[in-house]
Amino acid sequence: MGRVVLITGASRGIGAATARLAAERGDDVAINYTRDTDAAQAVVAACRVLGVRAVAVCADVADEAAVLALFDTVTDELGAVDVLVNNAGILHRQMRFDEMRVDRWRELLDVNVIGAFLCAREAVRRMSTRHGGSGGAIVNVSSAASYLGSPGEYVDYAASKAAIDTLTIGLGKEVASEGIRVNAVRPGVIHTDIHASGGEPGRVERLAPSVPMRRGGDPLEVARTILWLASDDASYITATVVDCAGGR
Ligand code: NAP
User: Fold this and answer.
1) CA–CA separation, 214 vs 129, rounded Å?
2) Could you tell which of 32, 58, 87, 164 is best to mutate to test the pocket of ligand 1, judged by most ligand atoms within 8 Å of the CB?
3) CB of residue 190 inside a 6 A radius of ligand 1
4) pLDDT tens digits for 62-94?
5) Measuring CA to CA, which of 82, 160, 161, 215 is 20 to 30 A from 184?
């Protein structure tokens, strides 16, 4: 395929699975991360072995200057970005809403919402035919939390993902005639490290019996959905949110 795919938060979990699958399909990949350089470099190595170009770029998506530098670096090293996967996301320890502190909300919204906004804005500025670009695709990674609400766990996180759903619908319609498709995937409970940051590493196992398919999802299953939305097979799909949650 030979596209340039930029994936935020790709040093592990769903982002890393998406990077490896994109490489397997022949795309060049940019692997963004914030902290774990070794993990990001391991994903780069796994992609290069498949014969594509791959780079790791450290950038906090919540930092506007860092996001601008991220896009410039990727463009310099791999060429113009064809696909943005807005995947970087965080959550904090599970607790009731009335126990949460405002600094937690600011950090969460900065990464999950402002970070996704910044990356989407930079992608549109570069991809839009209105600005001389040749089009592209943006896939935002939301969550089933946006419709479940995550009571008693992280209502703040769920609300941040609802913002991603609305970004997808509004931006998708806004740039639909400019060669850019904007879609989102809402994963359910997926086997990644993110649940440990919520304080419950075994959360997927606890919730699996309540999932209609009676299991948690594999990051690769989400990666396949992301890359389908980014592909020409989804050429008439935009401003759309797709659930990948085992029926949850
Ligand atoms: P994960 O395993 O915790 O990985 C998160 C990734 O994001 C890491 O590569 C991390 O890199 C990176 N990251 C964190 N903060 C960042 C920042 N400020 N700037 C750039 N990168 C940052 O998470 P995951 O489970 O794969 O989740 C990926 C996405 O799927 C998230 O948006 C999450 O909300 C969503 N999701 C996950 C599930 C699930 O059950 N796993 C369900 C629904 C939705 P460093 O470690 O280097 O910082």
Assistant:
1) 44
2) 87
3) yes
4) 999 999 999 999 999 999 999 999 999 999 999
5) 215
